[in-house]
Specification:
The chain is mostly helical. The chain is 55% helix and 0% strand. The chain contains 6 helices and no strands. It is elongated, with a radius of gyration of 22 Å. Keywords: Plasmid.
């Protein structure tokens, strides 16, 4: 995401706030079970993170800023250029082994 925004400081802020959490937890939608185990206290304090409403709101605000900043990169009209895809297929036919290409087009 940092590559898609002009101001990388938003991403850095989020990275710093979420640093105590493993990548699996940071990107998991069902991470709640992790937060309520006895192991949680060994690597992050509940009361300083998800138990702290100010912290949660600041992370949400940072995420919203990051999504707003990166949004134009991922939204808008997509132009489907058939000619481009045919050229790409021809290119792949020259560099990839035949066993990987299963298209009926010859």
């Amino acid at each position: 995401m940092a590559n898609f925004v002009e101001d990388g400081s938003i991403y850095q802020q989020l990275e710093d706030k979420l640093a105590p959490f493993s990548v699996f937890i940071r990107y998991s939608l069902d991470a709640c079970s992790i937060f309520f185990t006895s192991e949680f206290s060994s690597w992050a304090k509940y009361s300083a993170t998800i138990g702290n409403n100010s912290w949660v709101l600041s992370v949400r605000d940072d995420l919203q800023q990051l999504m707003d900043a990166a949004g134009p990169e991922f939204s808008g009209e997509f132009v489907f250029d058939v000619g481009h895809w045919i050229k790409m297929e021809d290119f792949l036919r020259t560099v990839a082994p035949k066993k990987y290409l299963t298209s009926k087009r010859s």
